[in-house]
TrEMBL record:
One of its GO terms (cellular component) is plasma membrane. It comes from the Bacteria. InterPro entries: AAA+_ATPase, ABC1_TM_dom, ABC1_TM_sf, ABC_transporter-like_ATP-bd, ABC_transporter-like_CS, P-loop_NTPase, Type_1_exporter. PROSITE patterns: ABC_TM1F, ABC_TRANSPORTER_1, ABC_TRANSPORTER_2. It is found in: Cell membrane. GO terms for molecular function: ABC-type oligopeptide transporter activity; ATP binding; ATP hydrolysis activity. The keyword Endoplasmic reticulum does not apply. This is Multidrug ABC transporter ATP-binding protein. Residues 337-571 form the ABC transporter domain.
């Protein structure tokens, strides 16, 4: 258990100090009633058993059962209050973790599986709720009861209590040994559960590919292997729990009973040892050992919760944030772009961009072509500020790109990806993207501008048509047109097209090409193209190879150079003729 983790959790607890104090008050009242019950029973046994029960005895009996009811009530109120605090803490932790995730740069998501992120924000944070709602309240209640019971036993008969005390170091030793043996097992069990979530997320997202390539058996085998590893670690935890939890504690409690009964058997003739005292001591033995047994049993949950909390805090403390932007009031007025000797490496060792320089002005379109891995998308990643670069300059209207605020940069740049992402909601909400200043008419106007209005109005609910996850009920062309409308509605000055029509069929391509031409008018446009036929009208085309610009010029100029571009164009033209 790391002290820093525990202290941070206590910090969350202090946010709800009044609810926590209320819960502690109920636990204290529960402790007092539990401690009083054996004393009342002892008095009743010693004064009214085998005698005619007087009215005072009946009242005492009624009071005895009333204490039971109070104990149940206080226990319920204490558990309820602690649970309320627990789920409030988990809400705060999830919110802060999610907020931090939203600020992380793309480099973090490149290295971290989505399933692992989901597992930490959901499963691991839920384990923290178990700690506060069950374990923490149990530990405090156990401490109160243990302390009150021990003090009461010493007051009743300190000589007899001394015979019980040697059992306590043995119990605490068992708890220490259990913690030492179980900690690594609990951590590995949680880690394997995270691996299961990663494999599930990956399999569900890639189900079409899995089925298309008949990889079901392989995925089932891989999942079974991870699942079996999780089971193995869980079983090893169960073995440790079975040895050190209730069985071991129960044996010690039975031995304590034996000591008490032997002592009473040898000293039953002594006047100070009454039947009521013997009953009270047996009850107090239960109350002395039960909290220790409960603490030991909950230690497994505590271990799991602490490991889970550490995993959540690790994500909460991630500092691989997206590149920092200035908070200045600088605005993108025109949208002229210039790259000057920009070099970049993802890993800090191997450059994927090498001395890239180019410029594009308002109303112009430039395009980047090249084989996979040539650096096309890296140029877009740097311009969109998904990654930080250290060498060279990127300028917008002659101003360093870092000197614009993030809000201004995102407002000025419209990005259309190869595979547009649609959210749960409606067609309208996906075009508006929650920009409150856009009206329904603005949405319709944007859709009409990119020729998306026809297919939208033909849907059963028009612009109110529900969009399922990732827009799976729409065709790729329809999703792309919605993405175009979303970009147009934002009225950006700069347009970034990252293979925006790579997945579109030839018939739909004509519609989208027309939309693209209208979108590009008056805007600075940078396009990454796989189909060379889609960028022939670009003002300048740059051919990339291994991170360098090896050719540049218009479509006709590049063909005349009879270089790499011409070979790519002829290859694609030949493939089209064959098809």
């Amino acid at each position: 258990m790391k002290k820093s983790v525990l202290m941070r959790l206590m910090g969350y607890l202090m946010r709800y100090k009044w609810w926590t104090l209320t819960a502690l008050a109920f636990i204290l009242l529960t402790t007092l009633t539990r401690t009083a019950i054996p004393l009342v029973a002892r008095y009743y046994i010693d004064h009214f058993v085998n005698q005619e029960v007087a009215q005072s005895g009946l009242l005492l009996l009624v009071g005895y059962y009333f204490l039971f009811l109070l104990r149940v009530l206080f226990t319920y109120l204490g558990s309820y209050t602690f649970s309320r605090v627990a789920y409030s803490i988990v809400r705060d932790m999830r919110q802060e973790t999610f907020a931090n995730v939203q600020s992380l740069g793309m480099s973090y998501f490149d290295k971290t599986p989505a399933g692992s992120i989901v597992s930490r924000i959901t499963n691991d944070s839920q384990a923290v709720a178990d700690m506060f709602g069950t374990v923490f309240s149990s530990f405090i209640a156990s401490f109160f009861i243990f302390t009150a019971t021990l003090i009461t036993m010493l007051q009743l008969n300190w000589q007899l209590t001394l015979y019980i005390l040697p059992f306590l170091p043995i119990i605490w030793g068992s708890v220490w040994l259990y913690r030492k043996l179980s900690n690594d097992l609990v951590m590995m069990t949680r880690s394997k559960l995270s691996d299961i979530n990663v494999k599930l997320s990956e399999s569900i997202e890639g189900m079409r590919i899995i089925q298309a390539f008949r990889q079901e058996k392989r995925l089932i085998g891989e999942f079974e292997a991870i699942n079996q590893e999780h089971l193995d670690y869980a079983n090893r935890s169960v073995n440790v729990n079975s040895l050190f939890l209730r069985p071991a504690m129960s044996v010690l409690k039975v031995l304590a009973y034996a000591v008490i009964l032997t002592f009473f058997g040898l000293n039953w003739q002594t006047a100070t040892f009454t039947a009521g005292l013997m009953y009270a001591f047996i009850q107090y033995i239960n109350q002395l050992f039960d909290p220790l047994i409960e603490v030991t049993q909950n230690f497994a949950t505590l271990q799991t919760s602490m490991v889970s909390a550490e995993r959540v805090f690790t994500m909460m403390d991630q500092t691989a944030y997206e590149p920092v932007q200035s908070e200045s009031d600088a605005q993108v007025a025109i949208g002229n772009i210039a790259f000057k000797n920009v070099s970049f490496s993802y890993d800090g060792e191997n450059d994927v961009l090498k001395n890239i320089s180019f410029s594009v002005n308002q109303g112009e379109t430039i395009a980047f072509v090249g084989h996979t891995g040539s650096g096309k998308s890296s140029i877009i990643n740097l311009f969109m500020r998904f990654y930080e670069f250290e060498r060279g300059q990127i300028l917008i209207d002659g101003v360093n790109i870092r000197d614009y605020s993030q809000a201004e940069l995102r407002k000025a740049v419209g990005l259309v990806l190869q595979d547009p992402f649609l959210y749960h909601g409606t067609i309208e909400s996906n075009i508006k993207m929650y920009q409150d200043d856009l009206t329904r008419q603005d949405v319709i106007a944007a859709a009409e501008f990119v020729d998306a209005d026809d297919f939208i109005t033909n849907l059963p609910n028009g612009y109110d048509q529900a969009v399922t996850e990732r827009g799976s009920t729409l065709s790729s062309g329809q999703r792309q047109l919605i993405a175009f409308a979303r970009t147009v509605a934002a009225q950006p000055k700069i347009l970034i097209l990252d293979e925006a029509i790579a997945n579109i069929d030839s018939e739909t391509e004509e519609v989208i090409q027309t939309s693209l031409k209208k979108m590009r008018q008056g805007r600075t446009t940078i396009a990454i193209a796989h189909r060379l036929s889609t960028i022939q009208d670009a003002n300048c085309i740059y051919v990339l190879d291994k991170g360098r610009i090896i050719e540049s010029g218009s479509h006709d100029q590049l063909l005349a150079q009879e270089g790499t571009y011409q070979k790519m164009y002829q290859l694609q033209a030949g493939m089209l003729q064959q098809s």
